[in-house]
# Entry
Amino acid sequence: MVMKRAKLFVYDNDEYCTEVKQFLEDSGIFLEIRDLKKDPFSYDEITNLVGFLKINHFLNKKSDAYNQHKLDKASLSREEMIQLILNDQSLLRSPIVKAARLIIIGHDKQKISEMLQIKANEKLEEKHKNTSNRKSSMRNNNRKRTAMSN
# Structure
């Protein structure tokens, strides 16, 4: 079985980022994690990440910077928005999960599961299945021993 991979862009002290990171690790996803506070995006990385999507999808409307710049009323160009994000990356919603050419912004586990084609608790089910198989095997061995001793 090929291990699924994803890039996870987080703010290390954010509870939603921590929750999604744990969820993905528990689901058996190999993660490449990047803390945006310690290692912010470059201009090229932001433009590649956003691609042709609306930049508003990436904005953290709850951030102080969003309110400070009055972005709910502003009509800035795409380039101006990218420059604002470069100067204050708290404007980016997090976490951002990227796999191949697909991307999910935010902590919706159902959408993340669909994108990565995993069940929410696939790893847990596999673990349970392995435990059940071992128990079944042990029961069969015990029956054989009991039959042989009689």
User: Anything to note?
Assistant: Helices lie at 15-26, 43-50, 64-68, 78-87, 109-116, 122-149.
